[in-house]
Amino acid sequence: MAVITYREALRAAMREELKRDDKVVLMGEEVAQFNGAYKVTEGLLKEFGPKRVVDTPISEAGFIGLGIGASMLGIRPVMELMFWSFSYVAFDQIVNNAGNIRYMSGGLINCPIVIRGPANGGTNVGATHSHTPEAILASHPGIKVVCPATPYDAKGLLKAAIRDNDPVYVMENTILYNDKGEVPDEDYIVPLGVADVKREGADLTIVAHGRAVITSLKAAEVLEKEHGVSVEVVDLRSIRPLDEETILASVRKTHRALLVEENKPFCGVDAQVAYLIQSKAFDELDAPIHRVSSIDAPQIYCKRLEDQQLPDVNRVVREALKVLA
Amino acid sequence: MAEIIDMPKLSDTMSVGTLVKWNIKEGQTVAFGDILGEVETDKATMELSCTVPGTILKIYAPAGSQLPVGAPICAIGKKGEAAPEPSAAPAPKAAAPATAVPAIPEKTDVSCLPAAPASSGSVAPQSDASRAKASPYAKRMAEKAALNVAALSGTGPGGRVVGRDVAAAAAAPAVAAPAGPLNVAVAPPADGKGIQPDADVPVGGMRQTIARRLLESKVTVPHFYLEVEVDAAPLMAMRESLNKRLADAGADAIKLSVNDFILKASAEALRRVPAVNASWAGTSIRQHGAVHLSFGVALEDGLVTPVIRDAHAKTLKDIAVEAKALIGKARSKKLTPNEMSGSTFTVTNLGMYGVTGFFGIINVPNAAILSVGATIKKPVVDAQDRLVIGHRMVIGLSGDHRVVDGANGAQFLQALKQLLEEPALMLI
Fold first, then answer.
1. Which residues of A are known catalytic residues?
2. Measured at the alpha carbon of residue A211, what is the angle toward residues A303 and A158, in degrees to the nearest 5?
3. Do A213 and A161 meet the contact criterion of CB atoms below 8 Å apart?
């Protein structure tokens, strides 16, 4: 099995799907000639030519609308947003048009579009470039949202997203782009709506998604070594559809839950997960559910403060010990 | 208007506090920030500073008393004002959160707290036993085990009954039955003169820790026991000859104890049978790469277990010197938490008291504990079938059967016996 980066895994997913299906096209700002703002699409213009890998003007509402229209006519566009923060410019297209057309056409029109790009804080790019809109988007029926944490999941989820007949929004993370991991050489997908137990444990369940999974796995190591606690880490992978059963099965096993995400806490993904657990596994709980999220403020520009704003290992360990008290 | 000051909640896990001492008397005037007294929690002794200036009207809880969080401890108000009566007397030593709710004349928004901003009303637990605080999981477990959660004492935050409390109660139903303080009915001595006055001695932090940890070990770890008798004569002979030589070293002289040899031999035996140097970790068994050897040191008011790190890599002399230093620190209560944590195996020794054999309770997360008895002279049958005077020592092993099986444990004792009977092997 090859060990490749998260960035290479995403690129491999797109290359394989471009090869497999000639309806697949890539579009976005700088994806072609500049090889991608974060070099995710590097080399794909050269390999597949300008009809399959298309540079767009700096106009998110315009080119996302273009992709949605194309997808309704049978093309399978994979749109890159330089930052998911810029999706707000194209919100009407992304939510109203892509999310509702299948319902409003009585099932006659599908919208098999993929929109992907980084959605994360922690890189000192300021409040307007650091949004994590997975919770906002996932609150709309008709939209699917995934947040891969590892190269394996990045490739498998992106391929599943491209093959899916509904709009699927893939939230990546620039801090993870250089993370390496094992990725099989053969064709595989990670199905949408299936969470993954990244570490088994008996005393506490940590539910996380995106980079918070990596932070939680490190915290689990510390908790085991320094506190003798056995922690299970559940990676949601898909925010919507949400794999309720994997979360509940883990809580039924450990009876304690800590939810970790890099979103802001108010109406975050974990607010939903906390509701789910208390609603369907109330009698299994041996302690109140706790959350670790980003500190509730616009993304702080000062790097040292921003590092404190995001959940880190110390904060996860500290909160885990409270749940375990 | 007078205000009642409650036993504050000074840590997440605190459910009961001991009023170690008062710095104030009734009638005394106190100002903001004055240190009223000291409170011992399960973790530390902390100062109680005043946030309500005024006159101490009444002290409800004498020094030395132990009270649940939220119980009234004193009242502060205007000079000459009558002290308010709490609605019920504070229940000393009630482990369960069922307690008196102080009668609060008005909604109070300030209280004497060192740090945590909580109003005196909000920390007082409910007195209604049917509303005993318990997690949903604990309630469900208790229902299955036919136990009354209201009768259990909770170890969770704020005295909440959690799963482990029900598990412990279910494993030891006789202990869990009484709802209130343990009532030990003892007939008074006939002539009125006992061996000592009847007394309920408050339980301090160290004893709480011993009680909690050993109870947890005994009810959650499936102990099994193995015993072997060792010919201690060669060990005695070697110790005597080494100590004779070492005594000549003048200022650097050290004296090797029997325990030093046993520690060294244990580390060596663990090298040979590493399966015993392990810990149960729920879904896996952690095999420890190094031997961190802990040993029991008895103190006047309890017991501590300092740790000799990397004992497998240390010489007999290293171990003897380090053990002596740790014992000294233990007796003067100078051991740091770091020096008492992270062990992989524990040795206890009651030989000096003439105890011939016993089995210790496993020091979790160790997989086993070694219990060493006294060396005694007794008749033995030697290799030539003659009856001779032997120097025999009985050593016992308590093992965690989740980690170690009888055969592993036996191999360990076999290795240890060989090392003790041919102590020259320890030199290699």
1. 60, 129
2. 125
3. no
Mutate to test the interface with B, among A251, A253, A286 (most CBs of B within 10 A): A286
For residue B136, which residues of chain A lie inside 8 Å, CB to CB?
282-286
pLDDT reading at A313 higher than 80: yes
Catalytic machinery residues of B: 401
Residue B177 pLDDT more than 70? no
Tokens of B182: 């343990």
The pTM score is 0.53
What structural domains and CATH numbers belong to chain A?
2-183 (3.40.50.970), 196-324 (3.40.50.920)
Domain boundaries, chain B: 3-123, 129-185, 222-427
C-alpha distances in Å from residue A277, one per residue of A221, A232, A271:
24, 16, 10
Q: Quick one: which H or E segment has residue B170?
A: helix B163-171
pLDDT for residue A173 is more than 50: yes
CA distance A44 to A54: 10
Could you tell me which residues come within 8 angstroms of residue A49 by beta carbon, excluding any fewer than 6 positions away?
Answer: none
B379 contacts B417 by C-beta, under 8 angstroms: no
Homologous superfamily (CATH) of B222-427 is Chloramphenicol acetyltransferase-like domain (3.30.559.10)
Give the count of alpha carbons within 13 A of B39, CB side only. Answer: 26
Q: What percent of chain B has pLDDT above 90?
A: 38
Query: Which chain B residue is nearest to residue A322, measuring alpha carbons?
Result: B12
A interface with B, Cβ–Cβ < 8 A, is 200-203, 224, 228, 230, 255, 282-287, 322, 325
**Could you tell me which chain A residue has the CA closest to the CA of B366?**
A228
- CA dist., res. B277 & res. B420, Å (int): 19
Decide: A102 and A109 in contact? Cβ < 8 Å.
Answer: yes
Specify the 3-state DSSP secondary structure of B113: coil
B157 vs A contacts (CB less than 8 Å): 287, 322, 325
Please check the confidence at residue B175 and state whether its pLDDT lies above 60.
no
User: How far apart are the CA of A202 and the nearest CA of chain B, in angstroms?
Assistant: 6
- Write out the CATH class of domain B3-123: mainly beta
Q: Check A201 against B283: CB less than 8 A apart.
A: yes
Rg of the Cα trace of chain A? Answer: 19
Chain B partners within 8 Å of A224 (Cβ): 281
Å from A120 to nearest chain B CA?
Answer: 33
